[in-house]
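re: the backbone from monday

yeah here it is again, tokenized this time
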């Protein structure tokens, strides 16, 4: 049981402003996973960071964020979503400021880990606030359209922002920029959002928290280590095996714990489980595409960081427009799988078309159509999949359900980056070795010929990796069509929801 503190009519009318500040916070969390990517070379030079240690700028954030999400979601359920949201914003701002002022590499690593800790509080509380604030199907569709557009386009926006800040200011502004954003979202959230306090305080399940956190950290870290060391590395195998075993033990414990961290009823729902799996697969393919296209723009086509970021803009704009203007309008008219399955299919086709990218490409001809098609597909997917994953959840489980959605995104992103990067690099290595050997058989290999073989090998590796990403996205489409069977919302349900909302307001008007 939980109860919501009763809002006044003025506070209730502020919920759309609340969506603005929730979206602002979500944008900050999502783009921070990629904003430092383009700034990393500059930070490495200034802080004398070794090639071995530089990965920790990324890994420290993803480990803390991915490992603590379930715990952060349950904390939001126990102490209140608004309180957790505001605390996450303040902590994120402080951690970002510390990172911008870092004088050593380990100070930067520590601040990134601290960002991840507070992001693990912020992300699930933001989504659960959205879920509990917008319950009318029409309003919910619009709200999820905005939120999903931000979630889908945030990573690409981070690449653009990182390029602009690094090229025209300094890499430190990739960290500093979060502080004013967080403070604006804090002030707005304090004014516009309602708190949701639990009626009863349940215990936190420390054993489940320990198993979930260590298992998720092991899996995310194992995926990040697969990129430099390979999937057959003993370290990677030990981390992944240990992480899966801990998560399996966590699942077993949740069926016996008195106050489980992740109640089994959340994942036993067929539609919700299908949404989680579809989202995870889609994010694996999406992060692989971002990785390949970033390197393709800069390493093959020779784009500057700002140019590379601008090259992602049409896709980001398409995601936002599709989410807010198309998917959000169709969400309350169609069964969710009629949005999710076609959306993932469109994205799979776009990824397949990118496997034909040439070494010398014309952006408008070879890149732009596929990226727009990809954005159109993701815009349809994210709105419906997030709505399906969070619909019908009891208020006391809203935070941990939202955390599970974010965990699917975080773990999917880690797996996608590591898995698809490994596929591309191993394919490139085999291609280059074979062609150098063939060229050497006819005479000495000139530097120009070697460079051409290397570039062709890189693009060939991207082709194979994008083909695998297309297959993974196609698998997401199949899962969505087969597993997600929820019907379209009925007009009667919407009317009942509207009538219920009207009746709920009557006692408040009478008291005033």
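seq for it, each position gets an aa:
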């Amino acid at each position: 049981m939980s109860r919501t503190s009763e809002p006044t009519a003025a506070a209730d009318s502020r919920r759309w402003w609340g969506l603005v500040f929730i979206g602002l916070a979500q944008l900050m969390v999502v783009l921070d996973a990629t904003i430092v990517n383009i700034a990393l070379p500059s930070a490495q030079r200034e802080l004398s960071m070794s090639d071995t240690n530089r990965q920790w700028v990324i890994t420290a954030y993803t480990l803390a964020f991915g490992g603590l999400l379930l715990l952060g979601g349950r904390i939001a359920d126990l102490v209140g979503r608004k309180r957790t949201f505001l605390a996450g914003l303040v902590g994120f701002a402080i951690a970002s400021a510390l990172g911008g002022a870092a004088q050593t590499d380990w100070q930067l690593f520590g601040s990134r880990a601290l960002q991840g800790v507070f992001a693990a509080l912020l992300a699930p509380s933001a989504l659960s606030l959205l879920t509990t604030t917008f319950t009318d199907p029409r309003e919910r569709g619009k709200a999820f359209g905005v939120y999903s557009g931000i979630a889908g386009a945030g990573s690409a926006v981070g690449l653009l922002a990182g390029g602009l800040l690094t090229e025209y200011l300094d890499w430190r502004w990739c960290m500093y920029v979060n502080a004013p954003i967080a403070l604006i979202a804090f002030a707005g959230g304090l004014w516009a959002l309602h708190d949701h306090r639990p009626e009863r305080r349940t215990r936190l399940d420390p054993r489940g928290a320990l198993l979930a956190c260590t298992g998720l950290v092991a899996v995310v870290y194992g995926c990040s280590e697969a990129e430099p060391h390979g999937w057959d590395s003993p370290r990677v195998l030990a981390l992944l095996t240990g992480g899966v075993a801990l998560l399996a033990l966590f699942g077993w414990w949740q069926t016996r714990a008195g106050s489980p961290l992740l109640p089994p009823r959340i994942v036993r729902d067929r539609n919700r489980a299908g949404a989680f799996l579809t989202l995870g697969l889609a994010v694996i393919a999406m992060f692989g595409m971002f990785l390949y296209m970033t390197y393709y723009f800069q390493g093959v086509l020779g784009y500057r960081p700002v140019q590379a970021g601008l090259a992602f803009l049409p896709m980001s704009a398409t995601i936002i427009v599709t989410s807010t203007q198309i998917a959000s309008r169709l969400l309350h008219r169609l069964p969710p799988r009629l949005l999710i399955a076609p959306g993932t299919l469109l994205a799979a086709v776009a990824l397949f078309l990118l496997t034909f990218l040439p070494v010398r490409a014309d952006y408008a001809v070879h890149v732009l159509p596929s990226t727009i098609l990809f954005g159109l597909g993701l815009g349809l997917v994210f709105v419906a999949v997030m709505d399906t994953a969070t619909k019908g959840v009891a208020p006391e489980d809203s935070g941990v359900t939202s955390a599970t959605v974010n965990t699917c995104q975080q773990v999917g992103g880690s797996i996608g980056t590591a898995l698809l990067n490994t596929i591309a690099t191993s394919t490139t290595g085999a291609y280059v070795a074979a062609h150098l050997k063939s060229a050497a058989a006819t005479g000495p290999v000139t530097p120009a010929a070697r460079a051409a073989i290397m570039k062709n090998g890189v693009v060939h590796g991207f082709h194979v990796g994008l083909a695998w990403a297309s297959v993974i996205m196609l698998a997401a489409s199949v899962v969505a069509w087969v597993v997600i069977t929820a019907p379209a919302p009925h007009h009667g349900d919407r009317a009942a929801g509207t009538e219920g909302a009207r009746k709920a307001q009557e006692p408040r008007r009478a008291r005033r």
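The chain has a mean pLDDT of 81. The two ends are 27 Å apart (CA to CA).
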